[in-house]
Amino acid sequence: MSANDGRAVVLGAPRSGTTFLMRVLGSFESAECVSGNLLPVGIAHLAAQQLHPDTRETLERSFRVALADYLTTSLYHARVAALRKWWLASRRYSTLAPAIRGVRVEQMLIYKEPFLAFAPELAYAALPQARLLYIFRDGRDVADSLVRTYDVLTDARLADLDSDELQIGRRVGELYVPWWVSEGESGSFLAASAFVRSIWMWREMVSRCRRFLERADVAASGRILQIRYEDLIEEPLRQGEAIAEHLGQPLTARMRERLEHAHPRSVGIHTRRDAAELAEAERVAGDELRSHGYTVTAPR
After folding, report:
1. The dihedral formed by the CA atoms of 170, 171, 176 and 178, expressed in degrees to the nearest 10
2. Neighbours of 287 (CB within 10 A)
3. Confidence band for 36, pLDDT divided at 50, 70 and 90
């Protein structure tokens, strides 16, 4: 694979189903799937700010270079990496010998970085030939999963700027408030639970993606496929066919097998939370929940 071959980028707020989607995409024999690490998460936060055009161009170039550099590293060319790809996507005897020799045959690099949802225009501009996949999910489920799995946006995490969710912020008392919270809402944000703070972040991410996708030039490009996580879980094969077509890849037997592992156990997990906390979350993000087709009980 060269720097001029195909590219695809997966966008979506953290815990929006991107992990499952990447497992599915990993079954493409002709696609290498990579998650995070290649691009420091701080760049996604920085790209969401008002920047000088030269600075923005530097970030775009850095993104392109980071992806191209990965294809020259031992992480990609190691024999064990080729064998792992064979196991995940092929398992055909005819392709085993090249994999043992470390030969790579992919023609597309698929990169996932959830925090690029803060700045979808970065991937769009930096990789003008790339296809983008934007996956979204009920923000209440996203927030619930973030809190239970990663313990994000607690007071302890707001004590410095070291977490992925808080790379840029302003000091308010003993804590930092993320840049994606307006100054007038600082007090309400700090008084909220980690769950409500998490849906606050989801609101900012999906609203930025929505505004970006509504741009006339973006809509006309045909480069971005929107995927509703709940639809992917409910109709995995139909959604899988749309994804494969968007990326110009065949829907393989291995991909079908991965899609068949879709299950609805995590859909609606937020309903187990305290009613008052859910009401506050819906107050914060109700408009975006409604605009994405989710039922909200709290009044506008």
Report:
1. -10
2. 13
3. confident
Determine the pLDDT at residue 5: 54
Cα 209 to Cα 11, 35, 48, 204, distances in angstroms: 9, 19, 11, 9
Sequence-ordered strand ranges (E) for 23-137: 31-35, 108-112, 131-136
Closest listed residue to residue 106, CA positions, set 33, 42, 38, 41:
33
Q: What is the pLDDT of residues 71-91, one digit of tens each?
A: 999 989 999 999 999 998 988
The answer to whether residues 287 and 211 touch, using CB atoms and an 8 Å cutoff, is: no
pTM: 0.93
Is the CB of residue 117 less than 8 Å from the CB of residue 209? yes
**C-alpha torsion angle, residues 70, 71, 73, 75 (rounded to 10):** 80
Q: If you average pLDDT over every residue of the chain, what do you get?
A: 93
Q: Strand 169-172 vs strand 131-136: parallel, antiparallel, or unpaired? A: unpaired
Pairing of strands 175-178, 169-172: antiparallel
Distance, CA of 291 to CA of 228 (rounded, Å) = 13
Look at residue 91 in the predicted model and tell me its pLDDT: 87
Tokens, residue 210: 């929505």
Q: What tokens were used for 114? A: 């959830």
Mean of pLDDT values over 266-273: 93
